[in-house]
Amino acid sequence: MKEIRIGVYICHCGLNIAGTVNVEEVAKYAETLPNVVVARHYRYMCSDPGQDLIKSDIKKLSINRVVVASCSPRMHELTFRKAVEDGGLNPYLYEHANIREHCSWVHDDRKLATNKAKDLIRAAVRRVYHHEPLVIKEAPLNPNVLVVGGGIAGMQAALDIANGQNKVYLVEREPSIGGHMIQLDRTFPTLDCSECILTPKMSDVGHHPFIELLSLSEVEEVSGSIGNFKVKVRRKARYVNESKCVGCGICEEKCPRRTDSEFEMGLAKRGMAYIPFAQAIPHIATIDKREERPCKAACRAACPIHMNVLGYVSLIKEGRFKEAYEVIRRTNPLPAICGRVCYAPCQQACNRGQVDESIAIRELKRFAADYERNASRIKARPVEITKEEKVAIVGSGPAGLACAYELIRQGYPVTIFEAAPEPGGLLRYGIPEYRLPRKVLSSDISYMKDMGVEIKTNTTVRNLDEIFRQGYKAIFLGNGAGSSQKMGIPGEDSHGVLYVLDFLRQVNSGVEVRLGPKVAIIGGGNAAADAARVARRLGVDEVTVVYRRTRAEMPAIPSEVEQMEQEGVKIQFLSVPVEVLSRGNRVTGIKCARVEMGEPDARGRRRIRLVQGSEFTIDADNVIMAIGQSVDKSMLPEGLVFTDLGTLDVDPVTLQTNVDGVFAGGDVVSGPSDVILAIAEGKKAARSIDAYLREEELSTGEGGQVEKLSEEEIAKLKEQFGSRKRVEHSKPDLAKRVRDFEEVEQAYSIEEAQQEAERCLASAIEGCFQCGECKEACEAGAINYDQTDQIVELEVGVIIVATGYDQFDPSVIPQYCYKKYDNVLTGLEFERITCAAGPTEGKILLNDGRVPQSVAIVHCVGSRDQNYHEYCSRVCCMYGLKYAHLTKEIAKADVYEFYIDMRCFGEGYEEFYKRLSEEGVNFIRGKVAKITDEALTDEEKGKLIVISEDTLLGKMVRVPVDMVILCSALEARSDAENVARIFTINRRADGFFLERHVKLDPVATPTDGVFIAGCCEGPRDIPDTVAQAEATAAKALSLISKGTVTLEAAVSTVDEAICHGCGRCEEVCTFHAPKVAARNGTMVSTINETLCKGCGGCAVVCPTGAISIKHFTQDEILAQVAALTEGS
Amino acid sequence: MAEFEPRIIAFCCNWCTYAAADLAGTSRVHYPPNVKIVRVMCSGMVNPIYILKAFEGGVDGVLVAGCHQTDCHYIDGPVKCDDMIDRLRKALHVLGLEDERVRREMVAASEGVVFARIINEMVEQLRKLGPSPFKVRMEALA
User: Fold this and answer.
1) What is the pLDDT of residues A603-643, one digit of tens each?
2) Alpha-carbon dihedral of residues A239, A241, A242, A247, nearest 10 degrees?
3) What are the two backbone dihedrals, phi and then psi, of residue A55, each rounded to the nearest 5 degrees?
4) With an 8 Å Cβ cutoff, is B117 touching chain A?
5) Do residues A1027 and A1034 make contact, with C-beta atoms less than 8 angstroms apart?
6) Of B32, B33, B74, which is closest to A1070 when you measure between CB atoms?
């Protein structure tokens, strides 16, 4: 073996080492060590002359091992390895002794420090004796770069690298790039608008052919090493198809739910479907869906017009009644009416009904409509008529009104022709006032008139051609079924027999109707119930309803039946009238027979059978027939075709009649039905008419199946929500109510309505509850509630982390009363306030809308404070000055800046400070102790009083102001620890990421190939951030330009002669580097050197000692340890 | 008689604790010179033989320190190190060495102050504990 000749070089590092360690003595000692040929000391070994000493000794003295004792090897090991290599030796024939950081800087006893330096050098000399030359291998570097964070730092780095035509993946966790900078209004000290300078960059990033932007995405896992990282990115479900969304914003407009806008710092609201701000990149919507809806929204599916029940109920819950009303209005032309007379299939379907009791949806709808009417806020704006084709509507019942409403909203000029003196059809003439007060009816109808619908009353349409001749291009017939059916029994012609529609029409028109003291009503529908209750109100003592089936089959709304009975109406179930009894053609009673229920017929209704000999008599002075209504053909124009049932024959899909351009819907087509079904038909006809006029195919769709909850779901919901019955509201005194026509059903109070709305299962969840409003409105069809998170795997060579900062939350400082007093704001909140596109459109306003007359700006909130962060946040002085300037400029207010020191270190900063002094800002040097509203003097009343020491005056001051801005510190991201773990970055004690060297390697990290830029490394201003980002880009580009990476030379190696192939190494290795396989007939382990990271875990567990780690062999370390045990 | 000065060898991982010791130096946080650091790439690389060798050579205490579980450059080095220490302690009992003589710590790169505090504590504790029984026996034999 060649003779080992070691050279030892001791660095003074100026006085850094030599001041504590006697370097001459150490050098002399080193020369005495075995194999040491030469030991020198020099002022700066890292300098060129210092390195030349080594190179020259290698040549002249033939030394073949080198030890340098100087600073940390983390600083200069590579420098000296390079020098050794330049001198002609393998760079691994070198060992470093750390006698500065680990010796001279941490000890002050010169003797002890000198002895320790000797020990460390002796150990290094013994160790280097065993060093072997290692082969350095290169591997190709993947030129793709991952940039994490889409703030100004990440964008700048991405652009620099992509401009060099290298692929960049930019991962941003928020829906848009822009970071904090896009939230800023203006930037100090030049006061140029942040948006104006940033949005072009954002746009460049968005459109760059070499940048692939992954927004709403987070890096979950990084493996591999420099040159060949594998990165797993979670692309969070946006619930919007990115390639289809055009960024029109209709989804947000339609979304019934609102939450605090993160971008506006909670000072404005956003929808659950939203684009965070106007210049967002990518400019596409995101749906904030956080959890699955607990119910199936059966209400919406069950509603014939598919009203967004979830939407308005949740808005009522939140107290946003106006918006609730607007949501109702979007689909329903007659909200207040439906809130009273609808048979509410939604309520019957409501999934909560399966859990305990369904939501009182109809009452909530009525509440919203009444609340708005009472607040006089209901005011329709005239609709702009954009279309030329006039549409005529015949009949102003619910079908006609609904059709008119839909058409005029699409810009069609609409005229309604009504035969009666007042519009409303059956709503007016059929439904009694105690159920539907006339002012409510008029309100809903005049809304439509205000929109621009023309209503011609007292106008009967007999001739369709005449209408077409007047220039109408389409006609909708909503004439209804206004003729009462006859029973066809003996005595029906007697005096005192009335037909229900005539009866109700007369009462509702104000015609006096005289009834005898006993009245019998035949029928079980709503009209029968109405007639019975009206009769009671007209003073009839004994009212009997005769119905042929049982209570369960009664078509009248159950609550109506219940109230009817409460009001003293008797019901004879399972009875049919067989004859009207009379004396002298004057009704005296009605003869009835009992029936039995048989098997159900084809429609599911059970047949009835007369029971022989069961006849009985009911005394009556009047009999009201309410057994059904039919279409009055005499009121309809000529030329139309009818069905066998006597209703108009129309195409079931288009609702077109046999006459081209003439459509029909409502009772005239379906026979007697319900208000909401008539509305649904009217709306359907409107769509059909629109398609007809535009000569397009009629698009169908909308709706969905009514879904029930499963037993498991019910059990789960019961556990989750408990049982909570419907909120009941009071009804007027029974005795009073049968005497007049006052409305019986009372509206919910605000509290009751909100309590009831709280029961809605869908609105119990946070975020989007998939009401479907946006999905319906999105013309691009981009909304997809079923999207799931996707994991994408990227392969990159270099990673740049630019994850930014969080703003310190000053609410943890109780004496500053942030969130307690309205007019105490943080810096970012004030940025939004002064921004022209912000919530106040750039006006500086107090919470009550006044302009502040005095404003205090408090520096160092959460920074330079040992209770929170000891560091200086670096940007607060300057942004505080900027706020002072803006406050003076915009609000013309007095400004008080409370500062500890003014730190105005950058380009133009000091000049800006001077300018502000000249603008008349009051600078008070002192840390604010407290902000309070407890006034001591009249002058302080109604103000916020800032209490501080003025250290220049040496006394306490109390400054009353209207607004306080807290210059909140920048702090490390709350999840910085996790991010650090993913990328293997170290953190400082303050939580920010640690650079490899604070001065000389400011953007590198301990992990090769991972760089950091911007505020994730500590607070800094925009110029510094951009410079740093460009530095990371330069680092990345230099690696890419080289194209290869040096593989770790200090990897594990197996001595195959000793290896038993036991496989322990395979078990422990995290990187799957060792593989046991047969070789020459025996099982041995082999290390894959490209996978091996050199951690040495395998060597420790190897039972035979076959594995060693190059450059960290047992011989080397044991020699070092042994040498250390010998010393002082 | 001069006060007993314990001798300590510290095995520190390159990425965290060695850097923490560097930071203590850069920040001039002083601690006694009784400790000498051996740099390893990972705390999971420390072979029990190295620790036994140190005691055989007469040191009074050994510190094995590396990254926190979540910071490891090699993902799970600290787990491997903990396993090794658990196994080693049994052997140390047999040899009559007190538990306190082998200290296992996790010190992040930012924790220079923590590193100095640990050294101070160890020196103080070992001063109280006295010389390693191993060393005493070796000297008696010699």
Assistant:
1) 777 777 888 888 999 999 999 999 888 888 888 888 889 98
2) -80
3) -60, -40
4) no
5) no
6) B74
